[in-house]
Specification:
This is Amino acid adenylation domain-containing protein. By secondary structure, the protein is of the alpha/beta class. It is built from 18 helices and 32 strands. Among the domains are: 8-193, 2-Layer Sandwich (Chloramphenicol Acetyltransferase); 622-705, ANL, C-terminal domain (GMP Synthetase, Chain A, domain 3). Helix content is 28%, strand content 24%.
Length: 705
């Protein structure tokens, strides 16, 4: 931004200013723009400020700040026919009158130093002038000539409707700050009339009645037991179990748990591998009225103990071969193989335990930013709603069911375990003795009529490498590939796009705190050609809002934090009331509560959502604020790259690329220089054939070299 040829004043004034202002455009910027600029009128309300220039520039910079998501705004202002870069840092807690005084001082100082300016060392997308000749070619210029107020813009970038919306928003903003100049800036509404209703109501018109809304998860399975008792409910290796057998075994276990003191919402730890016993244990806990707490036997003992002790669980369900890893604080240990005869002696009748849809079904632990895992309390209602939506969207009545290859501690597994059972299909469990992805590939070859397969993007890469022949993907597949857990790119789906383009791809998004998932994008593999793949639109009965730091709605296309409301929002964190109050907030736009995801997303022009970055992945590089996710998104466009990770190591940006080919560092840097400012170009580039993964098949950043 600065130049050694500039005076000290201009170097200091523009040091660290943004290279570009991310005002949302309707189309990508072409290499050249040849069409003549257009203009749309701006109608200002009655009343005139004393200093029209400073007032108008302050209002314009505030509008641009809100419509770009940036607090540091540079506008090329014409002052007495001299074009000067005018920089304003906008504080949301300041009053508009303070902003006007700040702008007035900036204009006066810049005009006094105009003779020292060499060239235009600033972004030139935005212009502002009161009068004079035509704008000098900025993307967007506000002209406040009295009686001829207008926005002049480049038609290659903006549609008329977009500029009209911006003009209407400016009119509203002008009226507000003229009437209340001492109001804090965060209270100023910078949306156009109609945009608020669109964002609050029209895009959240998702109300839908769904089946079994007042039932518990286990009761949905019981309904299927009554309808198809002799169908195969589950199989694992050489073992299988009918719905009748599953129900009877779960009923006996439930009665055994009740005899041990399990009542409504009693937490019961379940530490089992993928096996028929796992399904029996989960249903047994739910039938007894308890909530299950999944513990992965592969986790370190310290982490397992932290999870168990947080919930105060009184019982641990496991097997004798796994009991050696039983955590302290998990209560009495029930080894299903050791106590098999005692459990089998119980009645196979269903216990008469009432279940409320708002009763807890499970408590699942996720990583905490403080280093301590936090237990998300998930009621039956949210999961039943999720399963109902999935059953409709994924056509769960068709096909043979689903394979399960992921651990129970990952809520992605809930879909594969329960959705087939709710629809009378078969759960096919990949034994722990097999590599999960190799086992998945084998099952897909044995039963290509699976209804769906649930997996992460990393699983897709590994699965593609397991196929002996790329052409096998059409035979070793399923009707639906449901992908979640991390950002999905078109490169992940290259094999399916080429050899099985009719396979339906679901990019499923949702934090554990919203009952597995709540937003999805569904398209055939052949249509997934660009990266990143959008996360889509909300499920039934789900409300979403994109907001800035002050919980103001952001304009369409502007990145904002995603807030989620609706049926799927969970109760909060077990034993963490302060954290629950921080993350689950009253809905400022309507009834109910909202979950603050910490995810930055934006609306695409077709109203689908696109994931941008995590709030907590923002770092400082050479004094600049950098979203690591933004660099990763650009790297995902590099040919041959499947996945990307960018980290800050020793105050240097380091990027990791998963690819089958060795990628030259200079090629990557050259590629990024046309897309990002210099300070966002990684200095280290490492290519890996395969990223290291956590037990939940997410990228393990701690193991990257």
């Amino acid at each position: 931004m600065t130049s050694t040829h500039q005076s000290t004043y201009w170097q200091d004034t523009l040091a660290g200013a943004p290279i570009a202002l991310e005002v949302v455009t309707d189309r990508p910027r072409p290499r050249t723009m040849t069409e003549p600029p257009r203009s749309r009128p701006v109608r200002l309300p009655d009343g005139m400020p004393a200093d029209r220039y400073a007032f108008g520039l302050a209002a314009f910079q505030l509008l641009v700040s809100r419509w770009s998501g940036q607090r540091d705004v540079v506008v090329i202002g014409s002052v007495d026919s001299v074009r000067l870069p005018l920089r304003t840092r906008i504080s949301s807690v300041a009053a508009f009158g303070d902003l006007v005084r700040q702008v007035r001082q900036t204009v006066a100082e810049a005009h006094a130093r105009a003779g020292e300016l060499r060239g235009m060392p600033a972004p030139t997308q935005l212009g502002f002038q009161l009068s004079g000749g035509p704008p000098a070619g900025e993307d967007l210029t506000l002209v406040l000539t009295p009686g001829r107020e207008r926005i002049v813009y480049r038609p290659e970038l903006f549609d008329d409707d977009t500029i009209d919306a911006m003009a209407a928003a400016f009119t509203r903003l002008w009226g507000q700050v003229l009437a209340e100049p001492d109001a804090p800036l965060y209270t100023v509404d910078c949306l156009a009339p109609g945009q608020r209703d669109e964002l609050v109501h029209a895009r959240n018109a998702t109300a839908m009645e769904y089946p079994h809304a007042e039932q518990g998860m286990h009761q949905l399975v019981e309904d299927r037991v009554d309808r198809c008792p002799d169908a195969v409910a589950a199989r694992c290796a050489d073992e299988s179990m009918t719905y009748r057998e599953l129900d009877a075994r779960a009923n006996r276990l439930a009665r055994h748990l009740i005899s041990l003191g399990v009542v409504r919402e009693t937490p019961v730890c379940v530490m089992l591998d993928r096996s028929l016993d796992l399904l029996v244990a989960l249903l047994g806990v739910l039938k007894a009225g308890g909530c299950y707490v999944p513990l992965d036997p592969s986790y370190p003992a310290q982490r397992l103990s932290a999870m168990a002790s947080q919930t105060g669980a009184r019982i641990l369900l496991t097997r004798s071969d796994l009991a050696g890893n039983a955590p302290a604080g998990a209560g009495s240990t029930v080894c299903l193989d050791v106590e098999r005869d005692a459990i089998a002696a119980r009645s196979a009748e269903r216990p008469a335990v009432p279940t409320s849809p708002d009763q807890l079904a499970y408590v699942i632990f996720t990583s905490g930013s403080t280093g301590h895992p936090k237990g998300v309390m998930v009621p039956h209602r949210g999961v039943v709603h999720y399963l109902a939506w999935c059953g409709w969207a994924y056509q769960a009545e068709e096909g043979s069911g689903a394979p399960v290859h992921s651990p129970l501690s990952f809520d992605l597994t809930v879909t594969g375990l329960f959705l087939p059972l709710v629809y009378g299909k078969t759960v096919t469990l990949v034994p722990e003795s097999e590599h999960p992805v190799v086992g998945l590939s084998t099952r897909l070859g044995e039963a290509p009529d699976f209804t769906f397969v649930k997996l992460t993007p990393a699983h897709l890469n590994a699965l593609a490498q397991c196929l002996p022949d790329p052409l096998d993907v059409s035979a070793r597949g399923s009707r639906w590939l449901v992908v979640g857990g991390e950002q999905l790119t078109a490169e992940h789906l290259a094999l399916w796009r080429e050899h099985a383009p009719e396979t339906m791809i679901v990019n499923e998004y949702g934090p554990t705190e919203t009952s597995v998932a709540c937003v999805a994008d569904c398209r055939p593999a052949g249509e997934v050609t660009t990266s990143p793949v959008p996360v889509g639109r909300p499920f039934w009965n789900t409300r979403i809002y994109l907001v800035d730091d002050e919980l103001n709605l952001v304009a369409p296309g502007v990145p904002g934090e995603l807030l989620i409301g609706g049926v799927g929002v969970t109760r909060g964190y077990w034993g963490r009331p302060a954290l629950t109050a921080e993350k689950f907030i009253p809905n400022p736009f309507g009834p109910g509560r909202l979950y603050r995801t910490g995810d930055i997303v934006r609306y695409l022009p077709d109203s689908r959502l696109e994931f941008v970055a995590r709030i907590d992945r923002q770092v400082k590089v050479r004094g600049y604020r950098v979203e690591l996710g933004e660099i990763e998104a650009r790297l995902a466009e590099f040919p041959g790259v499947r996945q990307t990770v960018v980290l800050l190591k020793n105050q240097q940006l380091a990027c990791y690329l998963e690819s089958d080919q060795k990628i030259n560092r200079r090629d990557v840097q050259r590629f990024l220089r046309g897309r990002l400012p210099d300070y966002m170009i990684p200095e280290r580039v490492t290519t890996l054939a395969e990223f290291p993964l956590t037990p939940n098949a997410k990228i393990d950043h701690t193991k990257l070299p």
